[in-house]
Amino acid sequence: MADNIVRLAGVIKESIVDGPGIRMTVFTQGCPHHCEGCHNPETWDFEGGFDCEIEKLINTAKKDPLLQGLTFSGGEPFAQAKPLAKLAKMCHENGYNVFCYTGYTFEKLVSSFDTHPEWKELLEEVDYLVDGPFILAEKSLMLHFRGSKNQRLLDVKKSLAENKAIDAENV
């Protein structure tokens, strides 16, 4: 697939539950994790959804003066890391922050940079990361932007700088 095309399950133009502030949430299509109790099982099939140019997404965001950022959800965003890294870069160029959900842990992503350099590209453009698979037995409705207690809300810039997972503060 071209670097400027992302396979989507859908888009929510304004969300207040998928990260801080008012955000546009991009639901990617395709997920290898298949977590029991997944909130979006319709996003698992890599053949489902529809193709969308990343320029269309950033242009949609720019039409809304209330948006503070974009959230990449899924599916699994890191399954389409190359176009999402480009979109995240466009987000930063336009003053938006980037929030991303992944079923991988921060440590798994970092340890896979040699075999998946596109994961590094995307992670370097993410501001906040919720990492780890959703675990139904650890589900909690009391968690800030997370679905299960094993998941962490990380400050990616600090985590990459210190080469270890650093919890985000004041998000």
Automatic annotation (TrEMBL):
Described purpose of this protein according to its UniProt entry: Activation of anaerobic ribonucleoside-triphosphate reductase under anaerobic conditions by generation of an organic free radical, using S-adenosylmethionine and reduced flavodoxin as cosubstrates to produce 5'-deoxy-adenosine.
PANTHER family reported in the protein's UniProt record: ANAEROBIC RIBONUCLEOSIDE-TRIPHOSPHATE REDUCTASE-ACTIVATING PROTEIN (PTHR30352:SF2), PYRUVATE FORMATE-LYASE-ACTIVATING ENZYME (PTHR30352)
Cofactor(s) in the UniProt record: [4Fe-4S] cluster
SUPFAM superfamilies per record: Radical SAM enzymes (SSF102114)
Stored InterPro entries: Aldolase_TIM (IPR013785), NrdG (IPR012837), Organic_radical-activating (IPR034457), Radical_activat_CS (IPR001989), rSAM (IPR007197), rSAM_sf (IPR058240)
Official protein name in the record: Anaerobic ribonucleoside-triphosphate reductase-activating protein
Gene from which the chain derives: nrdG
EC number annotated for this UniProt entry: 1.97.1.-
